[in-house]
Sequence to fold (332 residues):
Amino acid sequence: MTSFKEAIGRRVLGREDAESIGKLSGFVVDPGRRKVMALVVGSGRKAAVYRWAEVSGFGPDAVLVQGAPAEGDEAKELSSGRGDPLGKRLLTVLGEEIGKVADLEFDPDTAELRSLKADTGVDLRAELLQGVGSYAVVVDTPS
Amino acid sequence: MSRLIRTSEVLGLPVVTIDSGEDVAEVKDVVYGSDEGRLLGFTLNKRGFLSGKMKAVLPASSVSAIGPDAVMITNAEECLVSKAEAADAVSSPDKHRNVLGNEVVTESGRRLGVVNDLVLLLGGHGEVVGYELRRDESKEAWFIPRPAQLALSGETLLVPDSIDGYVSDDFSGFGGAVDRFRAEHGGEK
Fold:
């Protein structure tokens, strides 16, 4: 399992030329499929977004990408931060805030999310994830 | 024990979509259906810099849950409706049925106080389980279970004398009082 927090700042290299593209600055999550959908590399004007299909390897020291980054409206939406769960308010489907998202764990081979960790220490199974947006990450209540 | 929330605590809460985590509106006011004993819906304000009244309203039937920090809906497209589409009661509430400020009087003609707030089931869709009444002399808040209501007019809420046993001056104890009252009176009317 790989931690989102630990992966932030990792080198991102091009698979074809081994050139450095930048540093991993954020994740974009698909709450419906409970998977990592894309990676954001670099920040500001130079930020580039790579869909998971373009990621050929996600290792402990570097991330390899092949193919081209997303463009146009899709790139804008993906790099907007709306789909990034880290640090966001954690809100249950019953309208109760239970902390902030401190970290997430995912499988670097399949992109599947395994769990979310709240800053209160509470661990939530990824199956509880309902939505990710600019206001909050919404989760079902742990039974 | 039932967990509760006052409608005054719901005003100003964000309305958040479950499927996309966006705060699409905030609660401006609640619309109470006194006959039904539950909220019919909410009028809304916009969020953020462009704050001001929203034309859309949120019918109670579209609410997933009313929580301490947000009112949850599945998505904005289906849940927020224009005033024209919403049932009349939600878009133009009958002012005579605004129970806030009503005097609370018992069958034997004793005045208990004034209705100051409505009490809802936390996590629910607007079920009103009771009233917060403000006592005249002491400014204490007492909680009266809604099933105890005998009659309601535009000015007065009439309750039985036996209500004394269920009045709680403690909000956290009120949940227990509501459960007891419902159990003894065979559930809600």
Remarks:
- Chain B has a mean pLDDT of 84.
- The two ends of chain B are 20 Å apart (CA to CA).
